[in-house]
Amino acid sequence: MKTGIVDAGGGLRGIYGAGIYDRCLADGVAFDACFGVSAGAGNIACFLAGQQGRDVAFYADYPFRRQYMSLWNLLTKHAYLDLDYLYKTLSRAGGENPLDYAAIRANPAEMTVVATNALDGSARYFTKDDLAQDCYDVLCASSSVPVACRPYPVAGIPYYDGMLSDPVPVEKALEAGCGRIVLVLTRPKTELADDQTDRVGARRVRRRYPAAAQAMRARAARYNAGVTRSLELERQGTVLILSPEGFPPMRPLQKDRAALLSLYRRGWEDAAAIADFLAK
User: What pLDDT is attached to residue 280?
Assistant: First the structure.
């Protein structure tokens, strides 16, 4: 029976997942298949590379640099987030915080990164074969939040964040043959998403990317359906949902270093339940 982990991302709140993966690396917990959406894509890449502790800086330090996340970027680059700064400047070989691409390739686990085709709104599931040394475009594509980012091109096709088309890819994990699935959420599992912000954002992108705008308007409903399905599977014993229950609410791009580090520690603590779940 294959085991899988699904990371739904959530902007800077994804540091919760970083804590979970670091605990897994410390405890020697592995998965047969890893699925990442948005920030979750970066998390699973670091996890498959075996780089414990690497991701913390990407959540708690680098967001305070104007090269990554700032109004300066918006004025000079027409995007609040500069994903190239993360995945090309910092993560390249010889960069300040390189991603161990060779270790990712050597890891036997499957890797799936979800992005959304901005032209037709469909989900695209990238794999390790779509990565190359110092070419992490699919990770950028998966994290390209509409309005905060322009769609990111991969092989000439523009992509937006995977959250638009498949925000909780648990069904994809089931299709891959996973009989035990850990789902990482960055909001309480009983908290439904609303579409108010998505509708505002959709109006900003609909002229150039109408299909992406339609997918954005449907994101909350897709997320809620995915979580509802996962709660049902959790009752059946197939899924373990890890989420920061009772943690003070945080916006996806909220820069609060103390809160982010606290959320990381919470992820580390919550991950203690994984080993027993996988052993059932």
Answer: 83
